[in-house]
Amino acid sequence: MSVSFFRSAAPTYAPADGAYQALAAPLWRRIAGASLDWPLVFVLFILASYPLGMIQTLGNELGGTAQDAITALTDALGLGVVVAYFMWFDASGATLGMRALDIHLFSYRTGREPRLLQAGLRSLLSLGFFLASIDAYGLSAGAYRHGGLTDAQAHWRLAAIVGVVLAVVGGLWKLVDPEGRTLWDRLFGLVVVEEVVPTSMPDRLWSPWGT
After folding, report:
1. Could you give the CA distance from residue 80 to residue 52 in angstroms, rounded to a whole number?
2. Environment class of 167 (CB within 10 Å of its CB; exposed 0-12, middle 13-18, buried 19+)
3. Does 6 have pLDDT greater than 60?
4. Among 38, 136, 140, which residue's Cα sits nearest to residue 81?
5. Global pTM?
6. How many whole angstroms separate alpha carbon 189 and alpha carbon 109?
């Protein structure tokens, strides 16, 4: 199969046991699925922030080491909501956004749902890139609003921008990859596909909703 920057046909994928055949999901479907997932995750984060904020307020009243410990714990729990969402649904083979776009996430080696470790690492990377995007924008905007950044903030902004660039380059790699996988798919041994056709039922597509 020849490789070109824009493909005329999607690369195919089949697990080692030949249980099905599928096509690599196009980049636009993956982006559309993520654009559905992140607003939902943000709502969950906001809902979790209310009780966590009350706990933080209690910590502020205590002050000292207790305040620092409670603040760190509640911040971690808040971000944990984001990681838990993606880890849970990634391990099932599709997030809600993926289900809406009819695409599937599988372990490349087995052709089955990702192991929990794979799903967890993928979720942490997604969270890291998301936070890098927020910091890159926030610190860049703050540099103009407040007349400059401290040295520490400038270094952190640079690191955040590098993170965003890595996220974009790793995703766009899919356009030239011979198997239609991003660099992050390859890093975690995953593949994202569509039009899954079971070998035993060649006239039927496999839906992420289990139908």
Report:
1. 12
2. buried
3. no
4. 38
5. 0.81
6. 7
